[in-house]
Design a protein that fits this description.
Blueprint (H helix, E strand, L loop, with lengths): L10 H21 L8 E5 L5 H9 L4 E4 L2 H10 L8 E4 L17 E5 L2 H14 L3 E6 L13 H14 L3 E7 L8 H20 L9 E3 L6 H6 L4 E4 L1 H4 L11
Parallel strand pairs: 1-2, 1-8, 2-3, 3-4, 4-5, 5-6, 6-7
Helix pairs in contact: 1-2, 5-6
Amino acid sequence: MNPWDKTSGDAHLVASRLEQVRRRIQEAARRCGRAAEDVTVVAVTKGVAPQLIRAAYACGQRIFGENRVQEMVAKQTELAGELADARWHLVGHLQRNKVKDVVGRIDLFHALDSLRLAQELNRRLEAAGLVLGVLLEVNVSGEPTKFGVAPDQAVETARELTRHFPALRLEGLMTVGPHVQDEQVVRGAFRQLRQLFEAIRQEGVGGPHFRHLSMGMSADFPWAVEEGATLVRIGTAIFGPRPAGPLLTP
């Protein structure tokens, strides 16, 4: 059996869901005086079958995000040659022993959460003669189950990244919002990330490349847009419910 057959969701629904996501971004941008074009959708394909990724690509989606390295590699292999101008982002936690598997496979890493990981990434990238765009993950909610540096360490960590790791191009910050339905709590977390972003940018850390705020997912992306997100990571709202576990090739 094809391992992707377990995936829920219908390809014909992807177009309407993606259009709805784009419309909600436009509405949120309009409410806060932003241009919708300044917000990029990262279609998160965790647990999503290749046929649904193809359907999103056919609707103009070009940036796809994965949480797990092994699943990303499996999908890139399955779709090799089909998505000519698609770009892949890694949006989930990366273990140091998996770094070798992402070099040359992604355009942006959203979840750089420690200097130890930065050191290993930099070592592997320098050996390959590559430079990778990264976002510093900040745990603004302070939840112990989440990865990321503490807010009071973000500015200094950003400085260290740009001083000591030339193969890493710091392009912004990322966070995962609190898993609550309280709009003010969620907005407060996003606002705190934006304030940290502004503090780092005012110092000139990262230079002109430092321009991204990756925040907001299916449940809260309109609030994230209103609080300044430039990248929103959306899976369920595009592809529908996913299975509980990762899907891998045999």
